[in-house]
Amino acid sequence: MKIIFITASFDLGGSERRAITLAKYFQFQGAEVELWGFDGPGRLSQICDEVQLRWKLIPFNWYQHPVKRMIALLNLLNQLKAAKPDILLPHTVIPNAVCGLIWQWSWAKKCIGYEGGYEFGLANQGWEKYAAKRLSSIICNSHHLADAMSKSYGLDRNKINIIPNGIDLPAPENSRSLWREKLGVDENTFLAVMVSNLSRFKDHQTLLSAWKLVWDQLSPSERNAQLLLAGKDLGTGSALKEQVRELGLENSVLFLGQVEDVSGLLHSVDIGVFSSNSEGSPNGVLECMQAGLAVAATDIEGISEIVGDDYQWLSSPGDADQFAKNILALKRDATLRVKIGGINRERIAERHSPQKMCEATEKLINREH
Hints:
The chain is of the alpha/beta class. About 45% of the residues lie in helices and about 15% in strands.
């Protein structure tokens, strides 16, 4: 069997992590596997090289002139015909739309799309709706996202399969002490981190407002605290840095950019934080939980489905005041942080196993229609 994964770029986000996990699994199972991306190269292509997995850059810009877009679609179709895949596994909106439009003229027997968030409309709602109906089936990482996609695209809900993200952090590349040395902080400094690209699909603004409230309520002796924002700037970085300046938080907020050693970073901080108005099943929360961290986050379906209904450290979207109270409570009670972190780690091990994710995807591929 030959399987080709298609991603929007070779940068390493949550969907790309899922793709590489599945790709390595199927390669180990004996399948011929390739990973194609529309933009890059990047960290994902580096990982492909490290695990000896074939990758290919296929430049594609959905937003170009319609004639040029049609030419790009035909070029991709010709390359698919030459590659002769049995299965196509596009990840996220634009790859799903592109593959949905052309896959039936390739050699592929099935094209199974994956959607992990609420980025509906990126490729134009009409095109997405048409392409989604042409896909063999679709994978979502959460029940609420599947319901939203079914409604948005007018799909039969039975066409959408729920397969939770599998999380398996690699061993840290750098120790806790080395990470803290790189960050310029000592062992007693309280560190909170949000791991997520800086984009309009996240709500870093509310987090920064909450951090300002935290900072103002800390006594001088408690102000050994830093908020770390780890993620690539996808368009909102300048505005967020300006907000930090306006709030007077230059000395307590660090922008780390894209971090390769996410595991090392997470094992070096005290809590995870995550602020967003809509999510599928965010890896930025899942990874913090697997690292044994307590997490303060926004109370939206994509997060509450992960942490459980009785989790107490969530705040309503845009509620900086409650977000700040949750951060402060966790900062001031190390015993509580450890207890919550242990519960979080156990929940991820039970519900978000990479093996279960891979086996469920394999079962879907092999299912007769």
